[in-house]
Amino acid sequence: MKLFVLGCGTSTGVPRIGNDWGACDPKDARNRRTRVSIIVESDGGERVLVDTSPDLRHQLLAANIDRIDAVCWTHDHADHCHGIDDLRALRYGRGGPIPAYGTEETVRRLRQRFGYVFAGQHGYSTICNIETLDRLKLLCGMRLSWCRMPHGPAQSTAYRFDAAGKSIGYATDFSEIRNDLVDLFTNLDVLVVDCLRREPHPTHAHLSMSLDLAAQTQSKRVILTHLDKSMDYTSLVEETPSHVYPAYDGMVIAL
């Protein structure tokens, strides 16, 4: 399996508009963060994109990715779905629409806001066929498991991908550790986890919560994502355990 971290920043990215780097060193390229999105690749080379960030076109060009085989959404907040139109270029040359998935609520909201993506219009082809996750067990040669997470008053979806004896978990945008999340992620090879800042936040995990989830699940390698402008890369490396790493845009992990 392979993990591509396309983007690892919070909803405003780093730096914020106005060239606001906060505590992040602007000389370290790993601190320049676009909005969160990942690709998980199976041992057979099939790729699942998780979320369509507003920076998706730039991310795919930077990673030299010109093909995906499916897309899943964690939820419908703007920083996770407003790059959806960039899927048009990934639809070209395919025999049919891109398979797409989300929870029932996410599917409903995406259909409302981006109807043309899922139905086509004015002679343009349907870009994605979207379905709920309810009965999905296998995707692109990987076993797929998921659960809902509290994201303040909203909900987000955590995903686990298993193939060839390896596992990758993805939990962004959550504000509470519940038993079903711990059960989902037990004994992961790689956990990619929400870590907005050091101080507690009403809708996101902070550093202590992220490390707590990693410890409860006994994850072998932990990647911190959804990082804001207070989370300087080098500072985080110095204060976290040796198996914990801040994400950076363009990070690739092969298992």
From TrEMBL:
Residue ranges constituting the Metallo-beta-lactamase domain according to the UniProt record: 34-226
Originating organism: Croceicoccus esteveae
Signal peptide (UniProt feature, chain positions): none
InterPro entries given in the database record: Metallo-B-lactamas, RibonucZ/Hydroxyglut_hydro
Pfam family, one: Lactamase_B_2
Protein name, as recorded: MBL fold metallo-hydrolase
